[in-house]
Amino acid sequence: MAGKAFRKFLPLFDRVLVERCAAETVTKGGIMIPEKSQGKVLQATVVAVGSGARGKNGEIQPVSVKVGEKVLLPEYGGTKIVLEDKDFYNWPDESFEEMDSTLAVQQYIQQNIRADCSNIDKILEPPEGQDEGVWKYEHLRQFCLELNGLAVKLQCPAIDYTRHTLDGAACLLNSNKYFPSRVSIKESSVAKLGSVCRRIYRIFSHAYFHHRQIFDDYENETFLCHRFTKFVMKYNLMSKDNLIVPILEEEVQNSVSGESEA
Known about the structure:
By secondary structure, this protein is α+β, with helices and mostly antiparallel strands. Helices cover 45% and strands 12% of the residues. The chain contains 11 helices and 7 strands.
């Protein structure tokens, strides 16, 4: 932490000052993680917040996060600030309507995750009028980003397979052939999202069945597999028979039971 420097630097309005978490360089087993496998760290700790922005009715709307909380950073943006030789980043806490149009959906998803990663229903609920194809696409981009954090912890003989699987999913989502725009997506390209989901899920299942402690620790911190499972169930992107990680066993059983009765 930058100590007394924060007392001299107070964010204005709805701005949030964060300190990015350091990348893990060694696994719990003592294995060195190559720099190219560390990935970009998107987790940070809130170190200072503004008083909040003034809403349309004139009332101050407090910032949605508190000092000391762990948050997930957007992939892009933020203003870099150096305090006592350490790098910090200043971010706005914006409404969906105020966000940059091209990256608004991604920013909106990440803001909801930062506010409360355990509130999965809120994270998966799209803004009014949001195109469903773009909504699903941006969520899958976000899952790939967050899975990097889990992948670097899985230092085992299957690490190359894990990285290859994740890189393959990311490459498809970044393909200019299928996804040339992040504002509008063709139906034929939306049909590719199921394949991406199946690739991503292999990493969850590998971690659950072969690295259970690492999986549990990461899941308790991020609720990532919970969110992914609810996501694919909500949009029918994967068969329930393929959801072998019993992370939401009760919901899956109830859903299957409801279909049987119908």
